[in-house]
Amino acid sequence: MQSVLLQAGYILNAETNIWLRPGYGGIAYSDGDQVERRIEQIVTTAKDLSVFSNELRSQCTDWPSLYHLSGVRANILRPFESELDGDILEIGAGCGAITRYLGECGANVLALEGSLRRAAIARSRTHDQSNVAVVAERFDQFRIERKFDVITLIGVLEYAGLFAAHEYPALAMLERVRSLLKPDGKLIVAIENQLGLKYFAGAPEDHIGQSMYGIEGRYQTDQPQTFGHKFLVEMIHEAGFVKSEFLVPFPDYKLPVCILTSEGLSAPDFDAIELACQSITKDAQLPERTLFSLERALPVIFRNGLAVDLANSFLIVAANSSEYNPESDVLAYYFSTDRRSIFCKKTSFVRRQGDIQVERHMLSANGSPEKLDNPDLFFQLPCDLTYFHGKTLYREFVEIVTRPGWTIKEIQRYFSKYLEIILEIAHSEGHACSSQPQDILFPGDYLDAIPSNIVMTDAGKAVYVDREWCASEGIPFSYLLFRAITSLMKGISTFSQPQDPAVATRGGLLLTVMNSLGLSPGEEDFAKFLRMESELSAFSSGVESRIFSTWSPDASLPGCSGSFPGEALDSRLKRTETAKSVAEKFAYERLTEIQRLQTQLTATEKAKAYAESLAINRLQELQQLQNQLTQANTQLESIRSSPGYKLLKIIKLASNRGRQDV
């Protein structure tokens, strides 16, 4: 690759180790100076730069660091891992999150990045990978005599209009990309859907930051622009690609945990809705409150064949050759990668001889998860099994609490059923358990027996799936119930208003459920539960700071912060009075601030007027001095040109010569 870059006129910068043309100044694109300096500091000082680096994961504390450092980013390309070899061109490398993954796949990677600082960070992230070259260059000015097996546009196509003077910049970019592909080459595109479901639910457009901006088509020519499914299909075809396939990443392409294929979306014996719904709240950019329940809307959308049209993002493979045939036996991928490297795994739903198999594979070759020394917790890779078509208990809970006016009795019946099901599974596996909830002790591998892992098959059988986290000691039902309830509260984007406001908070719901099952946990019990959850979190993630200091009992359930049907009038009046008092205080503070600013403005205007007056006076004085100087110069010139002055000069000259003769 080096010889090709040299022939194209690029020079390797010895300080940053990036390739660039002489005089290249970079593009004006940044997440902000402070943000990128922090990312640069983290990357340049980190010892472990790998995709699954525990060190980098511990630095993921906000959205920019998640986006630039998280190993979850690489999930978007994992379905194509077997094809990521040969020569790969990555357009828009950013700070190197995807670049690092491509390098670890063993391909010859040319990473193109327009920003000089980002290119330098990407090179730092891959400095130990000799198969990676980073070039600082604009794509519209990129010229090289090389064709590629794979080209990626991960979060890049939407920016085409910012850096290309063309009537149809995205189309022009696709056409140019196709010209750089080998005859059997492939283009991989990841981009937000202009008509994604979460944007209808009120999520702001990712690049502009305003709700409904993309849906209403308000894009300007100098702004990033996303596209809908139909438009992208037609544009890819117009660019000359022979075939294209759309996959759907959930919650979106940036930090995907689930990727559904076209086969998975169309298979009648596979429930893709389950994976999609359980991915919703893993969207780090989802607003705190949505206009409707995404979990309730998704099943309707899937059943009506609109899963692709209303997906939040697209993952697209476009090929130059009609002979390209992607794997047709894989229905879906589910990735568990926001965890300690030795625990990272991929779950594939694959059709084998007519049946659907659930296959698990560990993704890291660094160590064995069974050998991690911990006296209380351990990991076991769930065995492969035949897929069970049905509905999880998580989905049943969603259907209850996303219906306006849901009641305490419904919740009590649900969790009574949950207890019966867990006991039934334990008995069927030969475990003897007490019939009294406060005395029940489940086996250690029931630590993960939460509603999202309990499938009720179409035949009515309960199946406990994905039991990977285990405890060395038995699991008290009180702790398992705490885990079940908190996981459900965390896994639902929006609750509807309950009939009784007492269960509209996290603490109200949890205590109501536990008390209805004969459990009366106190402060010491909750402190113990939090300590156990913190130990599991630190053990699984490899990040010691991932601990829980509170379970936020006073916080409202998502979507339940407004008034409630049947709520007492005096209670609603009190809330209104409180809101009014806060608003008045806020208004008074703002009025005081406005008055202060007005005073400052008046003083500034007076100072400005005085300064202008002073400047005018000084200018007039300067003009008078200039006039006097001009008059003096005129008088001097008049004297110098007079006969008397000339005679004096001659006399003076003669006198000087006389002295020299003496």
Structural features, described:
The chain is α+β, with helices and mostly antiparallel strands. Among the domains are: 389-567, no CATH class; 570-643. It has helices at 2-7, 33-45, 54-57, 63-69, 97-104, 116-125, 169-179, 197-200, 229-238, 262-266, 272-277, 294-303, 393-401, 408-428, 477-490, 506-516, 523-541, 569-640, 643-661; strands spanning 11-12, 19-20, 87-91, 108-113, 132-136, 148-154, 181-192, 243-250, 258-260, 313-319, 330-336, 345-352, 355-362, 377-379, 385-386, 390-392, 441-442, 454-457, 462-464, 469-471, 475-476. β12 (345-352) and β13 (355-362) form a beta hairpin. α2 (33-45) runs parallel beside α6 (116-125), α13 (393-401) packs antiparallel against α14 and α15 runs antiparallel to α16. The longest helix has 72 residues, at 569-640. The radius of gyration is 35 Å and the shape is elongated. It starts with a helix and ends with a helix.
Fold topology:
Layout: H1 2-7, E1 11-12, E2 19-20, H2 33-45, H3 54-57, H4 63-69, E3 87-91, H5 97-104, E4 108-113, H6 116-125, E5 132-136, E6 148-154, H7 169-179, E7 181-192, H8 197-200, H9 229-238, E8 243-250, E9 258-260, H10 262-266, H11 272-277, H12 294-303, E10 313-319, E11 330-336, E12 345-352, E13 355-362, E14 377-379, E15 385-386, E16 390-392, H13 393-401, H14 408-428, E17 441-442, E18 454-457, E19 462-464, E20 469-471, E21 475-476, H15 477-490, H16 506-516, H17 523-541, H18 569-640, H19 643-661
Parallel strand pairs: 3-4, 3-6, 4-5, 6-7
Antiparallel strand pairs: 1-2, 7-10, 8-9, 8-10, 9-11, 11-12, 12-13, 13-15, 14-20, 16-18, 17-21, 18-19
Helix pairs in contact: 2-6, 13-14, 15-16
